[in-house]
Every structure is written in structure tokens, then in C-alpha cells.
Amino acid sequence: MSTVLLDAALRSAGFAALWTVLNQGDINSWQLGAPTVLLALLVSFAVLPPRRWSFHPLGALRFAFYFLQKSLISSIDVASRVMRPQMPLKPGMVKYALRLPPGIGRVIMSNVTSLLPGTLGVDLRGDVLVVNALDVDAAVDAELRQLEERIADLVGVSLAPVTSEGRGAA
Prior knowledge:
About 55% of the residues lie in helices and about 15% in strands. The protein has about 170 residues and is of the alpha+beta class. The protein folds into 2 domains: about 45 residues, no CATH class; about 110 residues, Alpha-Beta Plaits. Strand 2 and strand 3 form a beta hairpin.
């Protein structure tokens, strides 16, 4: 299937689902809904032309399982911190030298960092991601490195070699 057809199908399905939700599934609303979905599709193509998606299906599946696993671990971690507020913490900022090439992978990395227990992506500038960590003594670098590898698999890119300047205080 061509990129344009796949993109049109995905967008149409999304607009149709939105229309259905907004109209509480009323079948009679489709007299107006069908032209509205078509108009929304045309406007969306004018605003954001179709492009080739760079996600690899197998990488996306592996990332979905990874994401679910880390989300569960993160939820348990946060719940345990709430139940035991005396838990020793050493909050601070950590600079992480990115190995992902510039592009969508870095944006995903910055946003998804929040799924790791006790981390939040704060700033993305050039080759450095600044992360707010609840405990800077924890294995923050190892978690970020693993996340970066999963994202590289998701978007189908190779990572640059690890440099010696990986971590530092922000």
C-alpha cells in the first residue's frame, strides 16, 4: 500500500472515530459526518502532507511491551515512595549524552523518559538530554541507555558509539 493511501486510511479512521465519539455513536449523524470527515482529511493533508512513517512494525511491538513493563514498574515505584516517604532520595539533574541521530528518535526519547521510574525529561539541546531524577545515585544512565536502544530499534536507526563524557551534573 502506498504511503499516501496508508496515511489517508489512518487519518480517516481517526477522524471517523472522533466523529463517532462526539456524536455518541448516532448513525443518523453520518449524513453530516461523512462530508465532515472528508473535509477534515483534506485539510489535514493541506496542513501536514503525508510522509513515510519511519517506525518498524517489529520494533514498535517490542517497544510497546517494553513501555508497558516500564510503566508498571514505574507505577509500583511511585506507590512505594508514597507509602514510605522516608525512602532515601537524592534528587537532581543528570545530563545524558545522546547517541541517537537528530530527528524523531530524540524527541521520543525526551518524551518517553518519563516512563522510567523516578525520571523526567527536562531539556533536549543538541546531543544532550537533561533529566530530572529522584535519585541521581540510581542506575539512571543504564536505564536511559536501555531506553535509547529500544527507541533506536523502534525508528530503525543505528546509535553512535558510547563516549566517555556520558554523564554529568546539570
